[in-house]
């Protein structure tokens, strides 16, 4: 197993140790969340990702952050974690 260090881009002074979730064995039948962080051209980027995921057999749920300037609301993170097996966050400009 490879040891990885993940950096959280938020301004946490005492970051919490987080355990990685196991990788999906397949995208076929998985529900993947696509989170648009509300930056310009993010929707177009995620449109292309969505098409590729659907071709691989995944179900795709789309979500939008209210603003890119702040972290996603707790309620949105909870909703995504309940509804999806994995999530891709779309950054674009």
Notes on the structure:
With 93 residues, the protein is α/β, with parallel strands linked by helices. It has 2 helices and 3 strands, in the order βαβαβ. The chain has helices spanning 42-55, 74-83; strands at 31-36, 59-64, 86-90. The protein has a 3-stranded parallel sheet with strand order 2-1-3, with helices on both faces. Strand 1, helix 1 and strand 2 form a beta-alpha-beta unit. The mean pLDDT is 87.
Write a concise keyword list for the protein shown above.
three-stranded parallel sheet; 2 helices; alpha/beta; single chain
Short note summarizing the structure:
By secondary structure, this protein is α/β, with parallel strands linked by helices.
What sequence of helices (H) and strands (E) makes up the elements? EHEHE
Secondary structure: helix percent: 25-40%
* Strand arrangement in the largest pleated sheet: 2-1-3
Contiguous uncertain segments of 5+ residues: none
Structural class: alpha/beta
Q: Give a count of the beta strands, DSSP E runs of length 2 or more.
A: 3
- C-alpha termini separation: 35 Å
Rg, alpha carbons: 14 Å
Large-scale geometry: globular
Q: What is the average of the pLDDT values?
A: 87
Q: What composes the largest sheet?
A: 3 strands, parallel
Number of helical segments? 2
Report the sheet-strand fraction: 15-25%
Write the layout of secondary structure elements.
Blueprint: E1 31-36, H1 42-55, E2 59-64, H2 74-83, E3 86-90
Parallel strand pairs: 1-2, 1-3
């Amino acid at each position: 197993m490879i040891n990885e260090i993940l950096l959280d881009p938020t301004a946490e002074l005492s970051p919490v140790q987080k355990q990685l979730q196991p990788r999906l064995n397949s995208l076929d039948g998985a529900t993947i969340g696509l989170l648009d962080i509300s930056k310009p051209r993010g929707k177009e980027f995620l449109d292309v990702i969505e098409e590729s995921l659907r071709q691989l057999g995944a179900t795709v749920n789309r979500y939008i952050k209210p603003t890119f300037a702040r972290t996603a609301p707790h309620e949105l993170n909870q909703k995504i974690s309940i509804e999806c097996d994995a999530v891709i966050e779309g950054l674009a400009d």
